[in-house]
Design goal:
Multidrug-efflux Transporter Regulator, Chain: A, Domain 2, 6-stranded antiparallel β-sheet, GAF-like_dom_sf, DNA-bd_dom_put_sf, elongated, alpha+beta, single chain, Beta-Lactamase, 9 strands, 2 domains
Length: 250
């Protein structure tokens, strides 16, 4: 295909086609989600065909996001398989597309356990008197636990994640009795193991402020957090946010 048939696009032009911010396209290019190159002046460029292929891979379901298309572009599964599982049955924020790219760029997903995160969940469980504490990271299909105490599972489907609600705001997200909450009472994690009744989660953010996941505590009995316990959870979530801004350690 000639340059006339497949024109070169600036990041701004690509952003207009995709309906996202220029900074978002820049992150997608840097993460490899969009094929690109740098000019001698250091500016990113791509071709129209690359953007068209990305848009073609976007899930057809009305609730799906361009961010899921980006994750599909970085995924080894076929577009058909990705689309079949892409319609989200969970709440998403307006920045979900960029959040997913920020998570992919963090390099944290599916990395080994690290003491720096394990220490945080142990402390979170201790200071709140909770049997379960997690550093949970949210892809478009999974809730994956970077650190966990009191729970054997390494991940759950994203649509089961209480944390999907917690990443939508800035304040702690608290569910005092999940069995009595219409949003969660039929959730498999409430009906079955670990039989969640109480949940409190605080967003864990990267350097740009994107909520990659949460620090959360869980109990099998309905309850509330005291003010001191909630403050401790907030402080530990701030520490976890500082840690996710560091590169993964071997």
């Amino acid at each position: 295909m000639s340059t006339v048939e497949d024109p070169i696009l600036t990041t701004t032009a690509a952003a207009r086609l995709l309906g996202v911010a220029t900074s978002t396209v820049q992150m997608w290019m840097e993460s490899g989600a969009i094929a690109s190159w740098k000019t001698p002046g250091g500016h990113r460029r791509t071709r129209l065909s690359h953007i068209q292929r990305l848009m073609e891979r976007a899930p057809a379901q009305p609730n799906a996001t361009i961010g899921q298309a980006v994750e599909a572009a970085m995924s080894p599964v076929s577009p058909t398989e990705f689309q079949a599982r892409a319609a989200p049955d969970y709440p998403v924020g307006k920045d979900e597309a960029t959040r997913l790219v920020a998570l992919a760029s963090s390099g944290l997903i599916d990395t080994p356990q690290e003491e720096r995160f394990d220490r945080i969940v142990r402390l979170a469980a201790l200071v709140t008197g909770s049997p379960i504490a997690l550093v949970s990271l949210l892809t478009s299909t999974r809730q994956w636990f970077k650190a966990r105490v009191g729970l054997d599972a390494e991940e759950t489907p994203r649509e089961w994640a209480f944390c999907s609600h917690a990443v939508l705001g800035d304040e702690p997200f608290v569910v005092e009795d999940a069995a009595a909450d219409p949003r969660f009472r039929d959730n498999p994690l409430v009906q079955g193991d670990p039989r969640i009744r109480f949940y409190a989660g605080v967003p864990v953010r990267d350097a740009d402020g994107y909520a990659l996941g949460t620090l959360c505590v869980i109990d099998r009995e309905p309850r509330r957090l005291r003010a001191t316990e909630l403050q401790a959870l907030l402080d530990l979530a701030a520490i976890a946010s500082e840690e996710v801004q560091e590169p993964p350690r071997s």
